């Protein structure tokens, strides 16, 4: 009986290499733009040059750029498979200058088997040299990752307020595109203006504006800056705007053409400036507020001028993030409050700083977080 010989060949299975986190550079812009197309537009079509340029302009050429607070990419053998935007923003906490890192646009290639890719990026973000990490555009996917890595979500700062100006037009606007209800809104829309006009004549204080003798004046960034610095500095935490930075910020935010005209206005009582507001005037829709501020005891009057300005430009409603400093004034102005989800995420190794943010003691607006950054992916040019 012939013998039986066997040979065993052992193959050692090697684990796939893990991606590494490194700083984002201009050479990565095209790959990040492709990844953004895939993650946010759900298409593999090549991105337009405008998308690629956006990532370079906004994240590398902004006025507050610091090399050790650059955006981060997840690199797998030279291929970008993940990204998280990080933008340095100077702030002041109880008179001391601090470094804030604004986080935005967390994305990981879903076709790759990278179950911990997002956590890897967020952990690298949290290990940076910042004093405060902040994001005000969180969704249901990013919140769990943020929390697992040691960050916190603020329900208080995630609230939004809305002031209805034209009830019927606002209803039609909100129902637009919702199947049968949307078609009903289309039928109602031609008469909505007349109904709202009658309501405004009967109930002027409730429908669109408190009466007053204040004066509004269009203002440039240079004119708003000293007012904002003076009034915001009364808060425990507030943003610091170096020279020309507010101009750059407003110019970039104003590039969005889907939200309406960007308005920058100061409010005067005689010759004294008592407040300011910056918002998108959206005719027939909801005007979105980026920032508003007022001197003590003048908050109600400044909000009234904001609503009046939006009314005159045809807005159906005005909406913005909750500013705890003005919460009484929002309530007295007939605003409605809602919490659409955890929109604000924070992280800090400084317990006092973290507590001040979570308790609403800071003056942080949409201009100081990532909300305006998301406008970059909403622009309607050649994207």
Characterization of this structure:
- The protein has 383 residues and is α+β, with helices and mostly antiparallel strands.
- The protein folds into 2 domains: 20-158, Gcn5-related N-acetyltransferase (GNAT) (Aminopeptidase); 160-165 and 208-338, Gcn5-related N-acetyltransferase (GNAT) (Aminopeptidase, 3-Layer(aba) Sandwich), CATH 3.40.630.30.
- The protein has helices spanning 29-40, 49-60, 117-126, 142-148, 155-158, 167-175, 179-202, 204-207, 221-232, 245-253, 299-312, 327-332, 351-358, and strands at 20-23, 72-76, 79-93, 96-108, 132-135, 152-154, 160-164, 215-218, 237-239, 261-269, 272-281, 286-294, 317-321, 336-338, 344-347.
- Strands 1, 2, 3, 4, 5, 6, 9 and 15 form an 8-stranded mixed sheet that branches.
- Strand 2 and strand 3 form a beta hairpin.
- Helix 1 (29-40) crosses helix 2 (49-60) and helix 6 (167-175) packs antiparallel against helix 7 (179-202).
- The N and C termini lie far apart (77 Å).
Mean pLDDT: 85
- What is the beta-strand fraction? 25-35%
**Mind telling me which CATH architecture of the largest domain this is?**
3-Layer(aba) Sandwich
The span between the termini is 77 Å
Per the CATH scheme, the topology name of the largest domain is Aminopeptidase
Question: What is the highest CATH level, the class of the largest domain?
Answer: Alpha Beta
Identify low-pLDDT runs. 1-14
Number of separate strands? 15
- Helix tally equals 13
Name the CATH superfamily assignment of the largest domain.
Gcn5-related N-acetyltransferase (GNAT)
Q: Helix content range of the residues, please?
A: 25-40%
How would you spell out the order of helices and strands?
A: EHHEEEHEHEHEHHHEHEHEEEHEHEEH
